[in-house]
Q: What sequence folds into this?
């Protein structure tokens, strides 16, 4: 009786181990790795038409679907979202315009109100992994971002290549290229100066936002935007996968983190490193050298189960080190933070 039980137990252990070994093997291939990192085939808007933004709760023609050309010629699907109070002032004219997708967005009233208003502000939104511009909580986020000034804050959001209707294959280089093209469109075609553009990123979009900010501040002359807001950022892909759990429960590579040599070996197969900790340091140093005013805001929930809160603490440390006149250890910074921290209760905390 004992022998069959042992055999069954061994088989029960061997099956998941074998499947996990297969997963590790697949993760070393660039194609499978891209699907895991970007989740771009998971759209979450299968039963809605992105060309009908009204089905996502917007007013008629409050959103203009159009496309922006990436620097290598690919078309990036985008939404221009009007602030609601500005929309209401022109509602009659807007509702009588044709609706749907437009190749030539410059002919639209919404675009003209963005381009011609010297008080207009533009939030360039860079979303996270999976989904499209219309997925999940992104639509309520757009409204929240515009609510700060519902007369003047426009929002531009887009799908990276491989996401939604944007054709191509995602990669670190490709996503950065796409985001740079979108920001260049905002500055050149829409005519919005950098001082009126806010770069907003969430999850993997924070890594894209930092890369874009770094790219422009290194231009001659340096281009510095009104600010960068990073929601749930991460230090880099290697440290993220060391703790990442799918849906907060299923570990990806975290079981291997206890074997440093094996984990480092597997890390050599990571195609897209997305080293935000290094990028934020370079961005801070370049911004300091430019002597232009810059703002970086880090926002992170302490109970985030996808991207642990300590990633923001690491980014903050690298940012501080980049602007400090002497080297500062992580522990020393934590001590200083605890001294200056103002507890806001359920609202979180801020550094005084």
A:
């Amino acid at each position: 009786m004992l022998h069959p039980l042992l055999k069954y137990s061994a088989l029960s252990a061997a099956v998941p181990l074998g499947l996990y070994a297969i997963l590790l093997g697949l993760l070393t291939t660039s194609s499978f790795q891209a699907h895991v990192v970007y989740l771009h085939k998971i759209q979450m808007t299968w039963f809605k038409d992105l060309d009908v933004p009204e089905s996502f709760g917007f007013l008629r023609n409050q959103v203009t679907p159009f496309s922006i050309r990436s620097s290598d010629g690919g078309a990036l699907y985008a939404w221009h979202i009007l602030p609601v109070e500005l929309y209401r002032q022109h509602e009659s004219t807007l509702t009588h315009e044709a609706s749907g997708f437009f190749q030539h967005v410059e002919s639209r009233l919404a675009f003209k109100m963005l381009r011609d208003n010297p008080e207009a502000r533009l939030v360039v939104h860079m979303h996270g992994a999976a989904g499209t511009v219309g997925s999940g909580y992104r639509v309520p986020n757009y409204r929240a971002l515009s609510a700060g000034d519902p007369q003047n804050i426009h929002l531009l959001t887009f799908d990276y290549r491989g996401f939604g209707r944007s054709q191509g294959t995602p990669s670190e280089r490709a996503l950065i290229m796409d985001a740079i093209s979108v920001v260049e469109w905002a500055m050149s075609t829409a005519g919005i100066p950098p001082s009126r553009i806010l770069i907003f990123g969430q999850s993997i979009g924070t890594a894209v936002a930092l890369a874009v900010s770094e790219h422009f501040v290194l231009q001659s002359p340096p281009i510095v935007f009104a600010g960068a807001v990073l929601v749930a950022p991460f230090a880099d892909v290697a440290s993220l996968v060391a703790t990442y759990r799918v849906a907060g429960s299923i570990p990806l590579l975290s079981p291997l983190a206890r074997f440093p040599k094996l984990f480092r070996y597997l890390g050599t197969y990571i195609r897209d490193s997305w080293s935000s900790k290094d990028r934020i340091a370079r961005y801070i140093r370049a911004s300091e050298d430019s002597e232009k005013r810059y703002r970086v805001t880090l926002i992170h929930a302490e109970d985030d189960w996808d991207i642990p809160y300590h990633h923001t603490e690491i980014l903050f440390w690298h940012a501080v080190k980049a602007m400090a006149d002497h080297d500062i250890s992580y522990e020393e910074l934590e001590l200083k933070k605890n001294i200056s921290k103002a507890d806001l209760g359920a609202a979180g905390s801020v550094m005084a």
The longest helix spans residues 2-27. The mean pLDDT is 89. The chain has 13 helices and eleven strands.
